[in-house]
Amino acid sequence: MTTESTSTSGPHTTRPAGLAPQRGSAARTAPPRSHPLPRAPFASALVAADCLAVLPAALALPPGQRSAALLLQLTVAAVALHAHAGLYRPDAFGSVRAGAYPTLLDEVPAVAARLAFLWCAAAALLAARSPDPALGPGTLAAAYLLHLASAAAFRGAVHRRRRRVARDRPCAALVVGDAPAAHHLAALLHQHPEYGVLPVGLVTPAARDVPQPADAAPPPGPPVLTSPEDVQRAVIQNDVRDALFVAGADGVPCPDHVALLRRHGCALWLVGAPAPAGAAPVPMGRHLWGYALRPLEPLEARAGRTAKRALDVAGAGLLLLAAAPLLLLCAAAVRLADGPGVLFRQERVGENGRLFTLLKFRTLRPENEREAETRWNVAHDERLSPVGSFLRRTSLDELPQLWNVLRGDMSLVGPRPERPYFVERFSSLHAGYAARHRMPVGLTGLAQVHGLRGDTSIEDRCRFDNHYIDHWSLWQDVRILLHTAATLVRPAGS
């Protein structure tokens, strides 16, 4: 466990180079950030569109058959069928941008087929129940066509809104490949903002292998990134989520660049390459000014991130409700034992190097901010009160971090977050330490359930954290959570 501080802001706060500013900080000298289109509101808007689309279809039904129960069943069934088909996944083929999304016309065949099945099934069930209220062919066709037209109109409005926002708030991306092709693609994306992609840097083999003169004038367009450190800085400062690999003569991207950008948590795209044999077809509307767009990472990885976030929200929400009396008891004990200031806030490094404010129960007051930022362990500090020592030993001081999980700063399971001072130090000492920030940091992790807490080997923790990321599955998260719960009955603390 690390030293605490009630505040880490101020003129003497230590911040390693290249780390993004804390959420909500002023950071006037930082480069302008891109503003990705939120994914969840887009999916929610599509669900709402499908729910509303069933209402016009009710107009085609005879008055005696317009029951609320029937309309509700049709709505639930339609949403379930569309969800099973992946029609609510804005990132089914990658990240948030106009060129990556399916268009309305891409979706029409899937929507039409599922609504046809839905109405045929509804008519069959009504006929089986009683022949009197059975839907005639004309009524069935009219209800189906009204439902399909309404769904197309409402979903089309959502797609138009999403494209407009994508154009106005483009996502930052890196373009990777041979210099001429990379410059050409970057220029095309600047000329066509409707795709919602803003190139903020070029990564080319020539930039990596050939040293540039110190007084050479920079080429026009996005800056050329000449080292892995430059790539990391560009990813963090511009909130880069995507890397566009321009297909070379052999159509195979550079493995070093793939590994580097995957390590920084970027979604990887191959632009302009022909589809490999046996590959799933991509809709014609999914392209960047005529260049084919295909993901370089499996779809299962992105679906897994959605499932992991769902587990975090459900688990943290339920635990916060269940632990509310215990949280109040701990807060009262800290207040009585150590005075005002029940919680402390400390700056930590999260996924892809982004800073956030971690919450814990206060168990010790450091002498100053420098001690809070740079002292490694205070488990045996004489300033610890009996209450503080008990909270640390039982890990109850970590409970407020459930709020960090609910906010999205952390996950229930992942590498433990550390302070910027130690992230910079450990990254220079241990190979692979920076790579552990490829995934959200966690309340507990694989290293912790193997006893690597407090003053234990950083090299061992790093190895366990990267092994967890490389072999992640939702079931492994559940196993780690169960193992953590079991270890609480024999607490060791730190």
Euclidean distance between termini CA atoms:
5 Å
* Tally of individual helices: 17
Radius of gyration, in angstroms, nearest whole number = 27 Å
How large is the share of residues in beta strands?
5-15%
- The total count of strands amounts to 10
Mean pLDDT: 77
Q: How would you sum up the global shape?
A: flat
Helix content: 40-55%
Q: Write down the secondary-structure element order.
A: HHHHEHEHHEHEEEHHEEHHHEHEHHH
> Any low-confidence stretches, pLDDT <50, length ≥5?
1-39, 91-99
Please identify the structural class as seen in this structure: alpha/beta
Domains (count): 3
Oligomeric state of this protein: single chain
Record the strand order, biggest sheet. Answer: 2-1-3-4-6-5
Membrane topology: Multi-pass membrane protein
Subcellular location: Membrane
Organism: Streptomyces roseolilacinus
Domain Bacterial sugar transferase: 308-489
